[in-house]
Amino acid sequence: MTPADAALEIREALVTAGVCQLCCRIAMDSVSFVRAAEILLKAASLGISDERLRQMVQGEGQWVQRAAECEQLMLNFDVHDCVAAAPDGQQVTRVCLGCDGVKVPVISDVEKGKRFEKAVQRRKRLPRRKGVHRARLIRRKGADDRFKEFKIVTYYDQSRAHCLVSVTRKDHRHAARLMRRGAAVLKVEQAQERAAIVDGASWIASRIKDSAVPVKEVCLDFYHLSENVHKARREVFGEEGATGHAWADRLMHGVRYEGYQAMWEQLCQTHCDHRGKRQRAAIVKLMNYLAERQEMIRYPEFERRGGDIGSGPTESQCKATTRRIKGRGARWEPKNAEAMMSLEALYQSGAWDKWWSTRHLIRA
Fold first, then answer.
1. 6 pLDDT exceeds 80?
2. Mean pLDDT of 121-132
3. pLDDT tops 90 at residue 99
4. β-strand pairing of 147-157 with 163-168
5. Residues 6+ apart with CB under 8 A from 303
6. pLDDT (0 to 100) of residue 13
7. 276-323 residue pLDDT tens
8. Cβ contacts of residue 117 below 8 Å, gap of 6+?
9. Alpha-carbon distance 70 to 349, whole Å?
10. Measured between alpha carbons, how far is 302 from 196 in angstroms, rounded to an integer?
11. Torsion angle defined by CA atoms of residues 344, 152, 325 and 24, in that order, rounded to the nearest 10 degrees
12. Which comes out higher in pLDDT, residue 40 or 9?
């Protein structure tokens, strides 16, 4: 290792790509870096400390992030591979965009303070050695809360065979940049059909519209609409009861096969039939929710074309990218959590093998 390695951030330059890949894969699938180091020692006879392993894996994840930001990740598909069957039997290129926020456990400022005090007390108990300089302990600031929202952006085809996943710990403006970057990499503007299927969060639809993301339509996830309908059903009809469930089923059937207007008329009738203050407030709340998202409720049109009306692929990626992060008692530095999630996103995007065969060209 040369003195310049630290400055160039290639401390693991003496570790082969195969060893680094093995370390990353095992660390991603283990509950902790301590457990991953034990597995490496027993299974592959690789004696790596858990701290060294952590630095190596998270450093690799940061390199994946930088390559993605520079649009240097090599994928095994583009928009022309995202082919779906239309109702008339013709083949069309169809790409879906998904975006969501997910909570990640991070180290709060209070926890940082406790860890700092423990480190100070531990150092006081160590004997002083003449001529040995001790680096000054630095109290670093932690997060203002125990959880931080990360943003997940996905592009996928109808068959789920191809997927591009991106993650960021930054705000919604950076999520919009991920949308534009993914669209540029996949050449989404060349697809015949391109739609965004998202939940009801207002920031997602506004970012798609304001950031000129090349999608033609935005659809409200059918499951999230169902959640709001059943929330109103519990307020109006109670927690259980066949009447309330039948009412919710009629609403969802009407909006799915007849559209927004059918659901709106049913809600107006329900509002007239109930005089209770609590019941009417719940119905008005649901009607306001629908009115704000009227342009996104187009289920009959989507289903006639054979398209999706649910954001299941995006929800599954939220679970996959946080699988390693949300371990029992886990707390992360935001940048380290982002690096680990970027490695999982690389794997979920199907670019894992290409990364390890081309990383030397990107990092040169």
1. no
2. 82
3. yes
4. antiparallel
5. 256, 309
6. 56
7. 999 999 999 999 999 999 999 999 999 998 889 999 999 999 999 999
8. none
9. 17
10. 11
11. 20
12. 40
Say if residue 205 is exposed, middle or buried (CB neighbours under 10 Å; 0-12, 13-18, 19+): buried
Could you give the 3-state DSSP secondary structure of residue 217? strand
Mean pLDDT score across all residues of the chain? 90
Ordered structural domains, the chain, with CATH: 4-75+352-362 (no CATH), 76-106+147-218+311-348 (3.30.420), 109-142 (no CATH), 224-296 (no CATH)
CA angle, 159 then 164 then 165, to 5°: 120
DSSP code of residue 103:
E
pLDDT tens figures, 248-269: 999 999 999 999 999 999 999 9
Residue 91 region by backbone torsions, left for phi larger than 0, else alpha for psi between -120 and 50, else beta: beta
Instruction: Give Cα 304 distance to the centre of its chain.
Output: 29
d(CA 30, CA 351): 21
Please report the pLDDT score of residue 7 as a whole number. 42
> To which residue do tokens 């040995």 refer?
132
The b/e string for 253-283 (b: 16+ C-beta within 10 A; e otherwise) is ebbbeeebebbbebbeebbeeeeeeebbebb
Closest CA to 291 of 163, 226, 200: 200
